[in-house]
Amino acid sequence: MVTSAGFVNGTITQLSDSVETLKNASATALDAISQVESSIKNNASNIVRQVLSSYAKTLSDDITDDANAGLDENGLWFSLGWSLIMLIPCMICGLVLANLYRRRSPYDGDYKDDL
């Protein structure tokens, strides 16, 4: 019985120490929360401005990097340019030939195949 009373007293002492530690931790947390709250009230526009400018700079850098990577592919642009240059004369030639093939001469009865 004496050992159980000592155990209970030790447990109560540990519990009171834990409660004291919890009070200190909660007071520290409340102080930190009040500091954050006052910081948000006073500097919210500056914080938002900094975050947005950082995001805009990152986005701008990504777009610039992608554009520069696209300009490095000169072979792609060279081939697209030459295909356009060759496509236009081929289209003109095709239209002229299409008009020629539509014209048909009447059939002469004198045609003989000597096969």
Automatic annotation (TrEMBL):
Q: What keywords tag this UniProt record?
A: Glycoprotein, Membrane, Transmembrane, Transmembrane helix
Per its UniProt entry, which superkingdom is the organism in? Eukaryota
Membrane-crossing residue ranges in chain numbering: 76-98
Q: Does the keyword DNA repair apply?
A: no
Identify its membrane topology class.
Multi-pass membrane protein
Q: Does the keyword Membrane apply?
A: yes
Would you name any one GO CC term? membrane
> Which locations, inside or outside the cell, does it occupy?
Membrane
Q: Which family does it belong to?
A: Belongs to the prominin family.
Q: What is this protein called?
A: Uncharacterized protein
Q: What is the lineage of its organism?
A: Eukaryota, Metazoa, Spiralia, Lophotrochozoa, Bryozoa
